[in-house]
Amino acid sequence: MTERTPSDHRSILFVCLGNICRSPMAEGVMTHLATEAGDAHRWTIDSAGTGSWHEGERADPRARETAARNGVELTSRARQAGPEDFSSFDLILAMDRSNLDDLARVQAEAGADATATLRLFREYDPEAEGADGDGRDVPDPYFGVADGFDEVYEMVRRTCQRILEVEAPS
Ligand code: 4NP
What is the Cα–Cα distance from 138 to 97, expressed in whole angstroms? Predict the structure, then answer.
């Protein structure tokens, strides 16, 4: 069993479907912002997918290119989220409502020490306050056009900035 992190530390897991587009961007941007703030040692930041198709793969080249253009390196390798993540992370953030539903099922399989808080990523998006429906999702850019990655990048950047402010360890 993984030890829960002490209170001067915060652990956060970003989860999308494939773990090659949206959640690696969130992991990379959050790590970048925490590092820039001189605060990286106080955070554990990771990402995973609800599916396992891309296990072991690096982020999609389009996601890496978009992040790199903004000075952010994506180093993740895809993995599938599992029940154990609910006992090792403080906060698990789903990139869309479908991911949230899938994660709620994984959470239900987890044991009594599964104390992670599960929420939607865009609950922290300052431009999505009061949003409903699609407005609560980070759109999946995988099957879309190239500039879908730029839109996701901007959304992820402002949302991670807010997360860093409101979820910082005390
Ligand atoms: P992600 O995007 O969930 O943001 O990583 C996707 C990546 C791969 C697939 C779907 C979405 N796929 O079907 O393989």
Answer: 9
Contact 61, 100 (CB under 8 A): no
Please say if 21 is a catalytic residue.
no
* 16 in catalytic set: yes
Q: What is the pLDDT of residues 109-122, one digit of tens each?
A: 998 889 999 999 99
**Nearest protein Cα to ligand 1, atom 7:** 18
| H helix and E strand count, the chain | 5, 4
Q: Rounded to two decimals, what is the model's pTM? A: 0.96
Name the residue of 14, 16, 79 to mutate for ligand 1: max ligand atoms within 8 A of Cβ. 16
88 phi, psi to nearest 5 deg: -105, -15
Phi, psi of 119 (to 5 degrees): -145, 170
Q: How far apart are CA 122 and CA 100, in angstroms?
A: 12
Three-state SS at 43: strand
Active site residue 8: no
